[in-house]
Amino acid sequence: EVQLVESGGGLVQPGGSLRLSCAASGFTFSRYWMSWVRQVPGKGLEWVANIREDGSNKYYVDSVKGRFTISRDNAENSLSLQMNSLRAEDTALYYCARDSGGPINWGQGTLVTVSS
Amino acid sequence: QSALTQPASVSGSPGQSITISCAGSSSDVGFYKYVSWHQQHPGKAPKLMIYEVSNRPSGVSNRFSGSKSGNTASLTISGLQADDEADYYCCSHTSSGVYVFGTGTKVTVL
């Protein structure tokens, strides 16, 4: 069974940093692209970033370019999202997803709140 | 990277069929085959219902079907059931390599 477990969310001040992690199991992690998707409570889904199987290609939504960095550790079956220069509009539930032409499995999410 | 356009809400009676549209452009929905549909019940994580325009993952009811014509994709739910009441989102790969979601549709079972 595919399992994706996010962690690292919390309350952070504007301008601050946070690192999200996603522990993956139940599939061969190194054979799949992986994505981060976020959702403001009560609002729609927004794709944030994804990373190729070997980490050689990364894509980002325009609103996070230069501030967020996606990375992975295939030896540890782990996905990360380093978030810097956080803004109030980054407040959301962040989901980790296994990616194959789009998200195919989802984690339960970790909540990030950016507020002073 | 504008969100794909979906109707805000669609409703139907039990047993009826409904269709949700997802309008994009030649740079996303019309670009290739990577259009998916995701169901989300309140307070829950999304769940994949359709991938690559019209394919159902194992375990998803055959009451759910997907299609695409030009720059618009569609999700049809036949034999509507109470548990189908949820939010539905389309998602498409784009020519620039990023993904974009639809605005979301709330399905109500009357």
Structural features, described:
The complex is a heterodimer of chains A (116) and B (110). With 116 residues, chain A is an all-beta fold. Chain A has strands spanning 3-7, 10-12, 18-25, 33-39, 45-51, 58-60, 68-73, 78-83, 92-99, 103-106, 110-114. In chain A, strand 9 (92-99) and strand 10 form a beta hairpin. Chain A is globular, with a radius of gyration of 13 Å. The model of chain A has no long low-confidence stretch (mean pLDDT 97). Chain B is mainly beta. Chain B contains no helices and 9 strands. In chain B, the strands form 2 sheets. In chain B, strands 1, 3, 4, 7, 8 and 9 form a 6-stranded mixed beta sheet that branches. Chain B has a 3-stranded antiparallel beta sheet with strand order 2-6-5, with no helix packed on it. In chain B, strand 5 and strand 6 form a beta hairpin. Chain A binds chain B through residues 35, 37, 44-47, 50, 57, 59-62, 95, 100-109, and chain B through 1, 3, 33-36, 38, 40, 45-48, 51-52, 57, 89, 91-93, 96-104.
List SSEs of chain B in N-to-C order.
Answer: EEEEEEEEE
- The computed structural class of chain A is mainly beta
Structural class of chain B: mainly beta
Overall outline of chain A: globular
H-E order of chain A: EEEEEEEEEEE
Short description, anyone?
The complex is a heterodimer of chains A (116) and B (110). By secondary structure, chain A is mainly beta.
